[in-house]
Amino acid sequence: xxxxxxxxxxxxxxxxxxxxxxxxxxxxxxxxxxxxxxxxxxxxxxxxxxxxxxxxxxxxxxxxxxxxxxxxxxxxxxxxxxxxxxxxxxxxxxxxxxxxxxxxxxxxxxxxxxxxxxxxxxxxxxxxxxxxxxxxxxxxxxxxxxxxxxxxxxxxxxxxxxxxxxxxxxxx
Length: 172
Hints:
By secondary structure, the chain is an alpha/beta fold. It has one domain: P-loop containing nucleotide triphosphate hydrolases (Rossmann fold). The chain has eight helices and five strands. Strands 2-3-1-4-5 form a five-stranded parallel sheet, sandwiched between helices. Helix 3 packs across helix 4 (53-66). The termini are close together.
């Protein structure tokens, strides 16, 4: 069966929605940020400080390309869309869902120092600038776009409803 790949900005709730979706679908849940921490033994912030943004994005992409999963809801890091190879690999056996969240909501969820959150972007970039940089990449890789709802369960239900309406099935 196909995977469900959640993409979108940091702070859109990919992890929380992903867990709710996995439970609803009877799927496994995987957070790519957790895989990065497990494989490196370091936090995202530590990796960004040590490697810099460009090397971190390469590492994230390699990890994305190494995943061979089935029946899994995958919460990607917000910067995964910067790795075309990883996105192409993940989409071979999955449906990419862009959790689109209004910028004002994302801004309200972010700490002042974005690196504290482990966001892969130059330190002087604002969340608004990061959104503008990545928005076209989310659109490029999204098979489905879902507007985030209030609460992860409502968003998970919305994802299922949008996929049904679009005639998309994860069962193959």
